[in-house]
Amino acid sequence: MEVFLRGVPKDLTDESFRHELQPHMARLGIEDWSCDKPKKKTQAWLTFLRKEDGAKFLERHGKVVAPTQPRSATVLQQQQQQQQQQQQQQQQLQQQKPQMVGSATFPIRRGPEFSKLRILQQDVYAEKSAKDADHLILSHLNLEKDQRESRRRAGQAHQTKTATPTTVCRISSIACGKMVFAEVAGGGASNASTKALVFARQTECTTAGHAQFKRKSCIFTTVTHNQMHISYATVEDCVFDFADRSFTMILNESPRFYARNTIDPDLRTQWCRMPMLSGWPELSKYVAHCLVYRFQMAEDDVERIFRAIKEHHDVSVSRHTLRVDRAPRHHLHDYTTCMQDFQRKISILGNNPLLLPFAMLFQVHKMAWNNYLHPKTATTVLDIMERLAMEAEMEGRPRPFSVDSLKRLFNEIPYPTPGVKAAELDPFELLSCAIDIEKEIVRGDPAREERGRFGDGTDIAKQQAWVLKAMVTPTRVVLSGPDPESKNRVLRMFHDRTDYFLRVTFTDEDGSGLSFNPRVSNDYVYDHYRSVLKQGIEVAGRRFSFLGFSHSSLRSHSAWFMAPFVDNRMGRQDYATVLNSLGDFREIRIPAKCAARIGQAFSETPYAVSLRGGGGGGGGAGIRINYIEDVKSSVDESRVFSDGVGTISQEALEAFWDVLPLKLGAPTCVQIRVAGIKGMLSLNPGLMGKQICIRPESMMKFPSRDFVEIGICEVAAKPLRLVLNRQIIKILEDMGTDPGWFMEIQAKALETLRGVTATVSNTCTFLEYQGVGSNIRLPRFLRRLHSHGIDYRHDPFLKAIVEYVVLRELRLLKHKARIPVDKGVTLFGVMDETGFLKEGEVYIHYDKKAAGRKDGIEDSLKDGTVIVTRSPALHPGDIQRAKMVTPPEKHALRALRNCIVFSQRGDRDLPSQLSGGDLDGDKYNIIWDAGAMPKKEFAPASYPRNKPKPLDRDVTREDIANFFIEFMRTDVLGLIANRHLVYADIMPAGTEDSTCIKLAELHSTAVDYSKTGIGVTMMEIPRLPKTRPDFTAPAPPTITYSLGEVAFGELDEEEDEGDDGFGRPKYRYHKSEKILGQLYRAIDEKNLWSKVVTKADKGPSVWEQVHGIMDQGLRALGIRIEWRVRLDEARKVRSIYEKGLTENLQQFSSNPRMSLSETEAFCGDIVNKTGVQSRQERELSLKLKEEMDRLTNWIVKLIRHPEARPGYESRSAMFMGASGGGDGDDEADDEGPVSSARLQALEMAAACFQIEMQRDGAASLKGKRSGGSERMQSFRVIAAACMLNELEAVTREVQGDSTALVRVR
To answer: What is the pLDDT of residue 53?
Structure first.
């Protein structure tokens, strides 16, 4: 039932009006009701799940109409005479209801209305609505009712979470400054001075206001309604001074500032995000680096405020007396003059890179800018470094510190809070610490030399380069790096000058993307970003200016900057010369398109094949480049069937294989970048010699003479596992696919997760399926443990690894419908160059399962009908059927591997029908499961091409920078996709509905925005319905404990930070009856997790038992190994691993304040503790996985092949009569039953394992900045796995057959 309300206070919001009505509903015992109050309107609607509740409300609060006296007979007769003359009014007169008054009938005149409901001293009139209740809102109320009853059945009734009280205190002034250690006169006979912690005030605002301590943050509001938000997660300490009636917040991140929109209060954007607190202009000089704020309270009862905050709010609070220096001495504690001194000093040193390399100065600059050190301290650090570097140069020895040791020093620098000693921030002590770290590094690698421009002596993979980074936030610039990143064309072109390039990401203060909130305008923040792009960033005397960005980096809001430099040929390189060397972009007059073409040079190309000369010249690989025509539709040539794909000969392809790592095998399809060319190359066995064939019309994007090398982006090395997503599932449902098929494959996936920890066999199969620990053969290691009766779950870290991967898959399954399809695969697409395939036919090849391979892809593909699609798929025609046809033996197409080959015949190419796909590197999803076959098919979309208006001049750097900002500001791709998902669920026609078709077209426009510059405005996007499907509800947060143990938290519905419009929107959800809702509700996340996470009984140490396996195996073979002589080498290997691991923990964290957990790094996946992964976290996870695989591969190589390490000295091992002959004292040689190399590898692995057994937790994951000292666990797992692998290999050699000490099937 729906009730209409009139006279509602205009300024009440939906939520605040509901709050006012709640007591009235509670008195009537009504639980299931909903409120809809439009903004700035005086009307509202109430919806009741039960009609009797609505009737009860109206009986109590409905308006009353008072009757009046009947009209006189004379007046009535006059009216009746007039009405009788009008025939059209006759029927209305007959329908009037009479009332007897004496002997005549007279109609009643409507009386005045009386209200029985008052809200905020205002009469509100309630009556039954003329329209029926919205079915979606009724579904929402039903869902809430079911959830409430479910909680009651679980015994959680009335256990509602107590709302966190808001603690409010009046503020008279607020000051900004830094914490410093200053000389304070001491007492006693000696009268010696000591250093004490002092707040050095830099600026103060006397505007009064009040501070609200809420559940997650402290909000300071001025009398002019400007606000400053300080998240508790950023507060290192909140120091209360009772005597001074103040509290001081020491932060590790800038606050967020907001100003009330006073220009037009009726605008939707009520607030403006600001780079500083409005009304405090002087703060702009200090907001970036002075992160200490002191609040002067206008309260007498300070102790009451202190106790309330300590008891009710999750913030670090302490009580101390802090001295305030209101006039800091210039060049000592005054920030402005000290920063000027620092900038001057570091710029001078930057002019002499031979003394202190730029990367070292970058580290010190990072310490000052990132709020690690006061500028005065940083200047002193530079003085000391300069003196030590000069002494080392005069004495002909290496510097006593390096980039590596300075990077590690960061974790040792504490925040200046009460309890920290002055010595911990003393510049001499800090450099001493860096020198000690350097000595430790050198001990780990005596052959270490200062290699490269970064002077850290660290080798990286040849496909990587050291990259300096910066993060631009609304208030400051945060520096990081150098970190190893995959090379691109520009970095490869200037491989010896990579420290002149800077990768800059534009983010919010915590490193996440700037969030969209319809009530908050970010225009001032984007103006700040634009000024950085225009003015550049100056670091250590070098000014880095905007250069360009790739397509993927545009999506992640990052760009490349560069500083001018002189190359090896004594030529100046700057923006103009770099672009000129890349190609000629003058004919491209559209800024977005020009940016995309320049961006080709910034696409990651980890591997490259060298060429000689330009154009058609040969090369180091002797490859010739030929040009061929595109294949187009025969009727009007409007469709290009070969869009983005060329061919390559067998001999040329072998040259590609030579530069690829062995794990990538011998792919026949590669994605390339060369000069102005981009696209795919597929093997054509008919081509002779070393040649590639390029189609200029579709592959050459701009003219270029840079034919130096061919960059390789990706290769079709293996088939990719296919997982469904919500868009594909919805379209298949609308196409008539049996809903039971979706439920069946999800149930199978759930059963797999449910049984992961039931048996070790299941665990190992699951880890193989997920590719976790494959480099160290982790599944095989767990099987070995089981065969010896060892339960891996007795080790917390091994247990956490398994549970972590289960959690990841469970969250994707529940909240993203990422359901794996066994009879499906994802592959690169290419074109049939032979013309064998007819219209609508495809040829699909993927590597069948090798022995022991577990990737979840069935070997059941046969000729017949298959489903082909491509993500993202929003239009109902984005999924099509095709006919799989296998060419005859020896046919040229049979040479292609791991790809789908499309026909070149017909009126329209199939790829363009699938979300506007092409063949320049797109991946396609193929399903051949009979249960998935749809009953009907939709016509593919055909959107008109958006033609942007070109400029009447050349595109400038400023044009491209402006487009970059505009893209960040107006990118609504994700919003459109989410809106489409909602409408497709609520509309009866699903994705066929006109609203969904419109959204699909808008999505296509938004996808092309990065190339065309034509975006989608918010006004074009249909408004969100009143309720959303239940499957779009946010995931409950996770709580991570030590060693990666995870538990589910409760989804916090209370969002008190949203009082002023900043919190998460409170959406209403209805129960979706379509397939996505059914799939969502079929998964009880917490119940399944409780079955997976079982607490193992306490038992003997896993590692002590592994040690026993090793001893037993050696005794059985009669072998004695001298692992003790390899302890120093083992420590070096561990040092290399833990250094690389620590860098990965910091580098791949989206938040610069926090590092990842070791479990996340080992599994190669980043968990989102507040829900499912964001796009940024997914991209970082892929890179983390790649980097951890590279690191573990390297470590395994160093353990198994000790001679690969610099400075390796061969040592012999003793073999004691394994065959039963001899006296047992003969030294083994290469001709014995066990090779010397094998025994050396076993010794090395045993030594690595032994140093872990001996360690008492000296290594730590986190330093003082992160607050914790957890011992690293993963190196022990790697060492133990390698040790048992080598023991098995030795056993095979001794026994002379394939029998191993531990048989693994």
So the answer is: 93
